[in-house]
Amino acid sequence: DSGVTQTPKHLITATGQRVTLRCSPRSGDLSVYWYQQSLDQGLQFLIQYYNGEERAKGNILERFSAQQFPDLHSELNLSSLELGDSALYFCASSANELFWDRGDYNEQFFGPGTRLTVL
Amino acid sequence: AQTVTQSQPEMSVQEAETVTLSCTYDTSESDYYLFWYKQPPSRQMILVIRQEAYKQQNATENRFSVNFQKAAKSFSLKISDSQLGDAAMYFCAYQEAGGTSYGKLTFGQGTILTVHP
């Protein structure tokens, strides 16, 4: 158990719908990352939040948005869903300080993922 | 942009034998991390081993070791004394150290490892 929780485990919905995936990071971790794993795109970084602020963006579609709340949990919102959005969505967390120095390392701990199926 | 390439979609090994998984990457950075992650059928992402680019010594974790060739931008994983529980998808990953991209992981396409009894 990594200490990162994601809900729900499975989600089945229809095209055009909107869903929200939730992630609770490990206690004390300030950074939350979202990754998408699909057959077409492989495992790719979507977005990172640090202490409530967006820090880095990857190949995240405009139909997708995320936020991190004051209690540090994060939500990934997917709207106007298409068949191609079917994937496993991972959340990861780390302590991740803003500034890095040699010798620093903050492991990313992955949640169990949310399996999204769009029919 | 950094890229990570795993050229072996599938590999197989006999139990108790040794297998090596390959990975190459492209970056213009001098400081970074490289990782191997294991994803068993449960889909959980498990960190196997980490290598800091500024360290010349290859990382080792029990039966898992890496061959890090910085100039060649190559990072292979050797699994010794393979066990049935090693069967999984293995991902090579890159992480920039510092800078605005610090934190995000860039993954290769993955290698499915089958272990035969």
How is the secondary structure organized here?
The complex is a heterodimer of chains A (119) and B (117).
Chain A lengths: L4 E3 L2 E4 L5 E6 L6 E8 L3 E9 L2 E5 L6 E5 L5 E5 L8 E8 L14 E2 L3 E5 L1
Parallel strand pairs in A: 2-11
Antiparallel strand pairs in A: 1-3, 3-8, 4-5, 4-9, 5-6, 7-8, 9-10, 9-11
Chain B lengths: L2 E3 L4 E5 L4 E3 L2 E3 L5 E8 L6 E7 L7 E2 L2 E6 L4 E6 L8 E9 L8 E3 L3 E6 L1
Write a brief caption for the model:
With 119 residues, chain A is an all-beta fold. Chain A has strands at 5-7, 10-13, 19-24, 31-38, 42-50, 53-57, 64-68, 74-78, 87-94, 109-110, 114-118.
Could you characterize what this model shows?
The complex is a heterodimer of chains A (119) and B (117). By secondary structure, chain A is mainly β. In chain A, 0% of the residues lie in helices and 50% in strands. Chain A has strands spanning 5-7, 10-13, 19-24, 31-38, 42-50, 53-57, 64-68, 74-78, 87-94, 109-110, 114-118. In chain A, strand 4 and strand 5 form a beta hairpin. The mean pLDDT of chain A is 92. Chain B is mainly beta and 117 residues long. In chain B, strands 2, 5, 6, 10, 11 and 12 form a six-stranded mixed β-sheet that branches. In chain B, strand 8 (64-69) and strand 9 (74-79) form a beta hairpin. Chain B is globular and about 45 Å long. In chain B, 34% of the residues are buried. The mean pLDDT of chain B is 94. The interface between A and B is medium-sized, with 30 and 25 residues.
